[in-house]
Amino acid sequence: MKSFKLDEKGDLILQNGSFIMIEGDEELAQQARISIKTEKGEWFLDPEEGMDRGPLFSKFFNEAEAKDNILESTMGTSEPLNFESIIFNRDTRNRKLTVDIIMRKEDDETLALEGVEF
User: Fold this and answer.
1) What is the pTM assigned to this prediction?
2) CB atoms within 10 A of CB 73
3) Nearest CA among 42, 40, 51, 59 for reference residue 99
């Protein structure tokens, strides 16, 4: 499968006046990132797409529930992914949260998503 390459903000990337296309591991990682960064119910064509971010921003952070929501949000990717690790980096002073994720594909290769911001 091929997709347009997106930057960290979700904008299409142009190079020499043409859109950049991606496939393979890069495209699969982008699918996972999009699913995680999409708020559940945000996309009107599929209200179940995306992630429930409630546990990420609650007063009492529940890491287990947040991990479960990340896992659930990526179930619609084109290939099943198993999660090796999910590390939350909480900056309470600046009220920022980033997540580093390592996933394993069916062929036993790993994919990494680093610095996914919420």
Assistant:
1) 0.85
2) 23
3) 51
The DSSP H or E segment spanning 68 is helix 63-73
Backbone conformation region of residue 115, classed left if phi is above 0, alpha if psi is from -120 to 50, else beta: left
Report DSSP state, residue 61. Answer: -
Task: Say if CB 5 and CB 21 are below 8 A apart.
Answer: yes
* Type of residue at 69: N
- For 41-95, how does the pLDDT look when each residue is reduced to its tens digit (9 = 90+)? 998 998 989 999 888 888 888 899 999 999 999 998 999 999 999 999 989 899 8
Longest dimension (CA), the chain: 47
In sequence order, what are the beta bridge partners of 112? 102
- Using DSSP's 3-state secondary structure scheme, residue 114 falls into strand
Indicate the helix (H) or strand (E) that contains 36.
Answer: helix 25-37
In Å, how far are 2, 11, 45, 69, 97 from 66, measured between CA atoms?
30, 26, 24, 5, 12
Domains of the chain: 2-117 (3.10.450.40)
